[in-house]
Amino acid sequence: MWKTINSALVTSIKNQTVLQPINELLYQQIRTTYVLKRKTPPNLHKLGGLRKPLRSRHYIYDVIKNTAIERQPDIEVLLTSVVEGLGNVGDKVSVRPQFAYNNLLLPGLAVYASPENQEKYKDLAINTDVKKYSTPSAAYTVQSLSRMTLSVIMNKDVPWTLKPWHIKASFRKCGYVVPEYAIELPEQPITGPNMDIENKEFAITVTINKQEKVNVRCRLHHWSTELASRLPYVPRFWETPSEPILPEQKSILDTIPIKEIPVRRLRSGAWGVWVRFLVWRSERHPGPA
């Protein structure tokens, strides 16, 4: 009896394997390549002699290269659409791999700059009807200027006539460097001081790189060196409803987008400002909000 049980037990143990079944193996490739260097080189042995055993100090290594944390090089892609800040259609740009995958390749704005794709899209920049910009940042500059409301501060005590250098100084206060030759003022001159045009708006045209033109909304404010003559400060003047200084510019101002009130301002309780802003915008821009 005991012999039969012992024989069956030995047979079952022999049939079992210590290895995992092949269907449970992990087939995913893992990049775990390291380049190491021994901190203490092992001792040499005589030709034909026995090798000396390694000590614990011989198993201490310095990491020369770790491919898991190594910075991957930039990849080159070929733009198939205009991308703000990068380039025009047909331009070959070099960007970070993660940015290229998420923002260019997946949305279909670019393809890999392989020799086949370069040959395929070589005439894309010539045959396309998409508007081209002078520089990669020109599209972003046009969008930024069209959405701003430029504050133009003039003297309240001394007579003046609005000139391009006044606009240049106002742009410089906002962080923009705009030359005078790129600023186009309205044909009808704006003179002052005149309290009737205080906090009213007008439009100018700015030329970027002598190619792109953008209309910019401006607000005129008076300022005095005398403390008693100064007008009260108006915070967030761009949220205050206003009228054009020159009636003939109303159609131009209606085409310029109006800056929206941030949601955090509404959460802080500025509902009265928001209602007045909506009424003013509906009068200037009829249609759905």
Set out the fold topology.
Layout: H1 2-15, E1 34-38, E2 61-66, E3 75-79, E4 92-95, H2 97-105, E5 110-112, H3 115-120, H4 124-127, H5 138-146, E6 149-155, E7 160-161, H6 164-173, E8 183-184, E9 191-192, E10 201-208, E11 212-223, H7 250-255, H8 263-267, H9 271-284
Parallel strand pairs: 6-11
Antiparallel strand pairs: 1-2, 3-4, 3-5, 7-9, 8-10, 10-11
Could you characterize what this model shows?
There is one protein chain. By secondary structure, this protein is α+β, with helices and mostly antiparallel strands. Helix content is 27%, strand content 19%. The N and C termini lie far apart (93 Å).
Descriptors:
single chain; 289 residues; alpha+beta; Ribosomal Protein L9, domain 1; Ribosomal Protein L9, domain 2; 3 domains; 4-stranded mixed beta sheet; 3-stranded antiparallel beta sheet; 9 helices; 11 strands
Summarize the structure.
By secondary structure, the protein is α+β, with helices and mostly antiparallel strands.
Fraction in beta strands: 15-25%
CATH class of the largest domain: Alpha Beta
The percent of residues in helical segments reads 25-40%
Weakly predicted, low-confidence segments? none
Rg from alpha-carbon coordinates: 36 Å
Order of helices and strands: HEEEEHEHHHEEHEEEEHHH
Q: In which order are the strands of the major sheet placed?
A: 6-11-10-8
Overall 3D form: elongated
CATH homologous superfamily classification of the largest domain = Ribosomal protein L9, C-terminal domain
Query: For the residues shown, what is the average pLDDT?
Result: 82
Based on the coordinates given, report the CATH architecture of the largest domain. Roll
The tally of beta strands, per DSSP, is 11
How far apart, in Å, are the first and last alpha carbons?
Answer: 93 Å
The total domain count is: 3
Describe the biggest sheet?
Answer: 4 strands, mixed
CATH topology of the largest domain: Ribosomal Protein L9, domain 2
Tally of contiguous helical segments = 9
Structural class: alpha+beta
Pfam families: Ribosomal_L9_N (PF01281)
Domain Ribosomal protein L9: 75-121
Family: Belongs to the bacterial ribosomal protein bL9 family.
GO biological process, one term: translation
